[in-house]
Write the structure tokens for this entry.
Amino acid sequence: MPKVSIIIPLYNHEKYIQETIYSAINQTFSDFELIIINDGSTDRSEDIVKDIKDDRIVYIFQENQGAQNTINKGISLAKGEYISILNSDDSYYPERLKECISVIESNSSTSAVFSEVEFIDENGIFMQYLKAPEDNWDDFNIESFAGEKKIFLGLLTGNFLVSTSNLFCRKDIFDKIGIFSSFKYTHDYEFFLRLSSRCKVYFINSPLLKYRIHSTSSYKTNEAEVYFEVGIILKDVLLKYDLLKGNEDEIFFKLLKLFKLLNTSNTDRIIMSLFLLHIISPELAEKFTKHLIENPQHLFRLTCIEKIKTHLDLWKHSQAAWEKWKESNERLIAKEHELTLVNERLIAKEYELTLANERLNAKENELNVAQEKNNLLLNSYSFKLGSFLTYPIRKISKLIK
């Protein structure tokens, strides 16, 4: 039996799947099976997978069922003691499995391991590193986590664990806390919150995963739907998890911290509306929420998503206007700088001209003085006498010539 089961849910990633598979095959730890489930791809993904020969690969094709259902199927088929998920456009660092196994086997109470993430673009070029929760904190939020290194709290600021590709865990945790939920876009975020609230998890402070950002990423193409699901998830978190345990003073202090750290992704109205329904009838609220998740055409869902889209569009337009103003301002500053340089050069030339004029005036003064001396000499008695006495000699000289 393999030690680890790597699960790749594959959907229309012909451009990336080969790199993804080889990042798994070339791990420094080799005792694993690689379960690749093609979730109804319509591109050349299947041909690319079948061209790769490795006895550890288990390939399955199915009609499209969504990423969360595909991952759950992979978990049900897995034979390994540990589960490691790898999405078909991401890739592992070569030592990822080795590092994760080392951590999880050194502490029997640890259920799952995550790492820092390297973001890459569609061409595999480095963009940035996403580290611990600090990357999601606003400046005023830093004190919220002083002395509290809890992944669950960190997740309330945003999904800093990023993706299911970052999950390495014991297989039996799915028996304890359940499999991935039916959220289409945020099943990873909901599972991470559920996992970190009930189990001990470990975060490796170095990047072991490359997460790819490209034009067809589900987050980028369905941002409003993602935010809508986040709103439902946070509503459940605030209702189900006791975040304000303690005496009166502790509760008020924790409430302040919660206010500072909670990132609702612009879904405050959704959370408040569902909270109100829960106050009226918890049973009805749960049933209503289930319908919202499962029915993409639900009127409340569509209304919420449209509201979020409007907000996102306004934000994008304001950002575009800001960038345009910034670009214009930078051009203006550049032109002002050019004008300053031209003005400085003009001043320098004027100074040079002033010096030249001063030198010219000095020469004219010297010439005038010399002219005056010459006139004085020509009009002097001695010059006239000399001219008279030397006249015969000068005359003879001319005749001889």
Observations:
- The longest strand covers residues 200-212.
- The chain has 15 helices and nine strands.
- Residues 112 and 169 are 4 Å apart (CA to CA).
- The first helix runs from residue 17 to 25.
